[in-house]
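Here comes an entry:

___
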Amino acid sequence: MHAPVVVLQDSMKREQGGKVQRANIQAAKAVADIIRTTLGPRSMLKMLLDASGGIVVTNDGNAILRELDLAHPAAKSMIELSRTQDEEVGDGTTSVIVLAGEMLHVAEAFIDKKYHPTVICRAYTKALEDAVAVLDKIAMTVDVNDRATMLGLVKSCIGTKFTSQFGDLIADLAINATTIVGVEVGQGLREVDIKKYIKVEKVPGGQLEDSVVLKGVMINKDVVAPGKMKRKIVNPRIILLDSPLEYKKGENQTNAELLREEDWTVLLKMEEEYIENMCAQILKFKPDVVITEKGLSDLACHYLSKAGVTAIRRLRKTDNNRIAKACGAVIVNRPDELQESDVGTGAGLFEVKKIGDEFFTFIVDCKDPKACTVLLRGASKDLLNEVERNLQDAMSVARNIIKHPKLVPGGGATELTVSAMLKQKSSSVEGIEKWPYEAAAIAFEAIPRTLAQNCGVNVIRTMTALQGKHANGENAWIGIDGNTGEIADIKERKIWDSYAVKAQAFKTAIEAACLLLRIDDIVSGIKKKQAPGAGQGQSKPKIEEEGDADNDQLIPE
């Protein structure tokens, strides 16, 4: 007798789940639409006002989404996607959002037809496995030591960025920097740590063409006693400390009772002798430069300058690590533990130069440095910030190729090949999963379609021609030249993509789409602010209906 009621409740629950999924899909599509126009070389720029009132002009997907303050939880999780992509491979932040948005968009039809989200997710996961298999099939290996190939590759990856107008400059800087800091880790593998050992110094002024990768380190510091200490030393012996060269102060309040007047003099003399001994221990190794992360007292400065030693104090820990890597020194914690092997002799030149109004210390011309500084010059701060963002992407691409030396075609060719192969395979997928699988295949076409839109060509004609050429999964190298919008052979135009970036983008996008599809309720644990005295009872957690989710502002005005 009670069976119909159960069925009714179940269908109501499913209906409500469908509402939440639709709201999530709408939110994800809204985020994708914000940055859809920034994909490709002819893309638009976005001008953002950040919290402190400054402006950022960029077309880097991650930089744009980082500044957005969205209310909807699904939209927030989309923003996380581009951050993940940025941290993992450093490029493809826009593609991943566009792809995830499209995957959810094609799933909407199945939600309306009362398909269960698990079925859709199963089909998507199968499509992802097949897509990665296609990637492996069309990928070609590249020789990491062939500089011309590497240059072309990095250049095509940052061809979509603002700095593409400066030609090879940024690609050159990126390859030089990553080649310097690459470390062999055995079995023919190289590890490149961009965050730790490559410092990007932005100095406004000069021209962008003056930017260089220094074979060593540059820091924004001057010597301690400018008149007395040398500002230029060839082949310096460098000692790095992270202990203070000043008298030790008591940890907490210290009281000393002095009975005689001479005791005070003795006390001062002890302080002086302590510092003198410390300096003597350092000077024993005949250094030319002493750099410490902590303080350096006037007296220590006097002893060092008397011995003709240049000193720099209060250096950042990260900078000190980079100097150690560049000149082969070891950072010492206590001066009395110094050994000859701790002295850095790898640097060719120590020099302090004045750029603009500030002094910068250069420790350059190092023998086999494992850290470097990229010095960026440019007309304005905004320009420099954008160049730095592009340089980070370029260095990430160079790092990815060094780690996984494989290439796939760019210009939407990869996505079209994957799409064609999946469409072919969909006929062999059994059961109800066939349709979502085919929809996932069509969703991959979002990337070339968006590229065509941003070039301003006839989208329908271009897409039809491309689909015809890719029909049987052949012509894997036919794609769109993002500058002209023509259908071209990507191999001839040298438009490449890194395999690691593409594979990561596909995985992140599809996994995120599956995650959002499987959400059937949004339960808010945030208490609404009440007027004083209104409703003393405890507020219950609120289950969001479709109406509420739709009313949330997706995009800040």
About this structure: The longest strand covers residues 198-204.
